[in-house]
Specification:
By secondary structure, the protein is mainly α. It has one domain (3-450). Helices cover 84% and strands 0% of the residues. The chain has 16 helices and no strands. It has helices at 3-42, 44-68, 71-80, 84-110, 113-118, 123-136, 140-155, 160-182, 192-216, 234-268, 270-306, 310-337, 339-343, 355-387, 392-416, 420-455. α1 crosses α12 (310-337) and α2 crosses α6. The longest helix has 40 residues, at 3-42. The two termini are 16 Å apart. 58% of the residues are buried.
């Protein structure tokens, strides 16, 4: 097989997994998109508070799901080796870790108000954000269970059920948002807390639905996950944590960069915070596609390494990066040419009270267009490295790129050079650029000698 045909084969295999996974991630991001639109209807103050609360919850959720993402390459490698026992046990241990994470993270979310005050947020914004957080926290456990089972299903190259369930969850969230925020169909009008309760309801639906699907449908019910649920394997728990904990820290540094930027935007003012949330929500939606490609790349590289085929694993990694570059390059053009139309999805462009927020949001989207390509490359390269079970060096790269460079440059640009929110986003762009270069170099450095060794 020629290099070109091998690359195209892996690109097709990547897209076969990536399209449903990316669709599922887009569906999940649509929940935040719908929430943001609903917050905007309530007013810019609610948008700022809801954005602060959503960023806080998402920060902890992404850290949790990043740790649990270790289930995917470990199950994929075992599946590639036709080791059904390890597939089952890795999934079971992942569920135990999900349960262990839930309690401490729930306590942090419930009691976030003092921390938000210490970080300089306005009191009115903190009070509204707390109401939102104390509603959505009840959905943390089911969404973590869903994450483990999603990794299990995807590692077996059967991700379409995940897509269907997540799309249904988005529809349910939209209906629940409308019902609970505005008090329809006999329910009381809850305002911003209604957004949190709608998300909780959607998360429970998704968790229960995928649990029943795995329990009842072939080939998943051939793996005795539920009969093995109380079989704790300390060695496998350590294996998941050895791989997953650095991934969780990498997610902490990456999402922490965005969360810290959100907090700094709040210190500039409510208008900058609202504009930041609009731009960040838009970037989060486009990011979901390369994130789905990253998950597919992790699975494909892990399966091929389990089959002792590093040459194809190398092509799989590059195919994933190429697919992400093509998509994010297109999104960069869209964000650069249609910023006003994008902002108009969130706010009434004709309302005089929104003009300051609109102006800042358009400026931030212009900077966001700059880092689309870098954001896609870095997340897919990290996914390819997870397929190789290499997670410690990417963690160190994240520390340097996201915080040492990105946050530092963003802070200096915003507060020392007086660039405000635009300065914060220039820091984001630089941090993601450095991460993209370093993570791609790391993947090439690890996989190329393995591929050449097999060929020789």
């Amino acid at each position: 097989m020629s290099l070109r045909s091998g690359f195209l084969t892996e690109l097709r295999s990547c897209l076969y997994l990536a399209i449903p996974l990316a669709s599922a991630q887009l569906a999940q991001a649509s929940t935040g998109f719908i929430d943001t639109i609903m917050m905007g209807v309530l007013g810019s103050q609610y948008l700022a508070a809801g954005g602060l609360g959503a960023t806080t919850f998402t920060f902890l959720l992404l850290n949790s799901t990043a740790i649990l993402s270790a289930v995917s390459p470990l199950v994929a490698e075992a599946y590639g080796q036709d080791d059904s026992v390890t597939v089952t046990q890795m999934t079971v241990q992942g569920l135990w870790i999900a349960g262990a994470i839930t309690l401490p993270f729930s306590l942090i979310i419930w009691n976030a108000a003092p921390l938000l005050r210490v970080l300089g947020q306005e009191e009115s914004t903190v009070l509204l954000a707390t109401e939102y957080l104390q509603a959505i926290v009840w959905g943390l456990f089911p969404i973590l269970v869903f994450t483990v089972l999603k990794n299990f299903v995807s590692a077996l190259s059967k991700p379409r059920s995940v897509m269907v369930i997540m799309v249904a969850g988005v529809v349910l969230n939209a209906i629940a948002n409308y019902t609970l925020i505005f008090g329809k169909f006999g329910f009381p009008a809850m305002g911003l807390p209604g957004v949190g309760w709608a998300s909780t309801l959607s998360y429970w639906f998704m968790g229960v639905s995928l649990t029943l699907y795995v329990l009842l449908r072939s080939p998943f019910n051939h793996y005795p996950i539920w009969r093995s649920l109380f079989q704790i394997r300390p060695s496998l728990l350590r294996t998941i944590l050895d791989v997953g904990f650095p991934v969780g820290l990498l997610a902490t540094f990456e999402t922490g960069l965005f969360s810290a930027t959100t907090l700094l935007a709040g210190r500039i003012g409510a208008s900058t915070l609202a504009a930041h949330h609009i731009a960040l929500q838009t970037a989060a939606i486009t990011f979901m596609v390369p994130f789905g490609i990253s998950q597919a790349t992790t699975v494909r590289v892990g399966q091929l390494m389990g089959q002792r085929n590093p040459g194809s694993a190398r092509l799989a990694g590059y195919a994933g990066i190429a697919a992400g570059m093509a998509f994010m390059g297109t999104m960069a053009i869209v964000m650069m040419t249609l910023p006003q139309q994008i902002v108009g999805l969130y706010l009434n462009l004709g309302d005089p009270q929104n003009q300051e927020v609109i102006g800042v949001a358009i400026a931030l989207l212009s900077v966001g267009a700059m880092f689309q390509l870098f954001d896609g490359i870095q997340v897919i390269a990290a996914g390819a490295l997870r397929g190789l079970k290499d997670t410690r060096m990417p963690m160190l790269i994240g520390i340097v790129a996201y915080w040492g460079i990105g946050l530092t440059v963003g802070y200096l640009s915003a507060f020392r050079l007086g660039l405000g929110g635009v300065g914060l986003w220039l820091g984001l762009a630089l941090g993601l650029f450095v991460a993209a270069i370093a993570l791609t170099w790391r993947f090439n450095r690890l996989i190329t000698p393995l591929a050449k060794k097999v060929i020789s």
